[in-house]
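Notes from the 1:1 (GR / supervisor)

We went over the backlog. Supervisor wanted to see one worked example end to end before approving the batch request, so GR pasted a single chain during the call. The sequence is below; no edits were made to it. Supervisor asked that the structure be written out right there so they could see what the output format looks like.
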Amino acid sequence: MGWPDVSRPRVAPRSVPSVTPPIDVSLLSTVVDDRAVFMAATYQAGEAVIVTDTTPVIRYANPRALLNTGYELDEVIGQNPRIFQSGLHDPSFYEQMWERLAGGHSWSGLLLNRRKDGEVYEESAIITPVRGDDGAVVAYVATKRDLSVERGLEEDISRRQSNRDSLVALMNTVRPGESIEATSAAFCDAVTQIDGMDGAIVFMLQDDGTVIAASADPEPMPGFAFGRHIPVPRLQEIVEETVGGPWVLDVSASAEHPEMPTDLLDVMRERGIVAAGYAAIRWNEELVGVVSVATLRPDGVHWLKSRAGALEEISSFAGAILGRQALQYRRHETLRREIRDIIDNSLYHPVFQPVMNLRTNLIGGYEALTRFDDGCAPDIRFAEAHSVGLGPDLEAVCAAVAVETVRHLPVDVWLSINFSADAILDGHAAAVVAKANRPVVVEITEHAVIESYPALRQAITRGGDVLLSVDDAGAGFASLRHILELDPDIVKLDIGLIRGIDRDPARQALVAGMRHFGLKTGTTLIAEGVETAAEAETVRDLGVELGQGYLYGRPRVIEAP
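Structure output shown during the call:
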């Protein structure tokens, strides 16, 4: 109750109206006589009730009073009510209270008291004198209501509105970027604009158990460049903990979380981070990452814990703006690791298909093709490699093995190797063909627009005296303009032109036209996909010099001696 010590000099009461009139004990006698009724009424009261004598010494405290103060009954009975004082009121506060009570008047007001555990709380109190038959005060009854819950609700409503306003502002400023890197940087930067949130990082989960950090690197967060892998096995525990909802790390008590990377904790301490909050990022119910926010506030642990709802909303927004890109990036990285594994462990082997001279019926050369150990179709595997930026690397290692495999063949037998425009332009093709011990034909397989034909032609010459071949004439991007711009030494007629050519005058006319083009430009023609003797005879009669197809041989392994 926070009442004064009776040793304090009494002062005359001020003429302040009493809120509640003094209780006449005679009026209570009819009720108090039934002790069971009295005890039941006070025991079940929703407000704290404390009764003292005039000493004053506590004679009774109901369960609500004990709940509010944190004391046990035997700890308060016989004690002066000042055991509840917080020390936050001036002495004059208690003097004014005692002035009214000593004058036989009730007192009402707000008290800042302290619970047994040291927590200060606010309560609304009414203290009423109880008079005996002779009119003298014989006791005091205090009824008190703890305002902590109400104050907490008010603060929570205010906090929620503030959080909501900040989140709305966040959502209005961030838009998906062209890449997950750009989007995550914009997101993290926007989060740090929220008052009290001094840093943000997005951790993206990968299929191999690693975590990739992405942040805008605002102070005071560590400098995690995008794409940095964090291969900490126990970091998965952090991720799993977010599944149950947002949680807060007390950096000063980090020993309670041994799964946290030591280097990360060290940097957090160096930069004054007090606490960090973590929440799961989901896309279509799939966990794709974790968002972490950091604060420098001295009360950071309590502050972040009280904003668990805001942290969860931030993570939900992260899922909406980052989720799709994060999942795509994860799949991209998984595929990239698979391709890298194929390259590093040589999970491929070359096969060779003969190219026949249709006049002599002798093998003039071989086209080197690739087969993958996992049985994946070559066109699919190379397309996947290009989609993750490893196409030229995969082409180069496959071509290098082919060059070495046929080193024992007669040097007049030429080798045709497939390269994309990217592999030619970045120098991969030239580096491989320069090591060949025979004539090499570079066969362009790019089924896409070539931006600079002059640059491509120049890059081919870096490999030495090589011939240039255009694949699949009559299909895809191997158009007449494509052929004219590249000025190739060889043009391969697509299987679509050759299949059934012995029965189709239209196809024969097209091939005859290409033959005329070849004669005028010095270009050699290769008929692809020749499977029947009739097809072979027809293309030979049309003047095509070379043929390739199952009629002459399927792609096969050539063993080195």
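Supervisor's comment: The first helix runs from residue 25 to 32.
Batch request approved.
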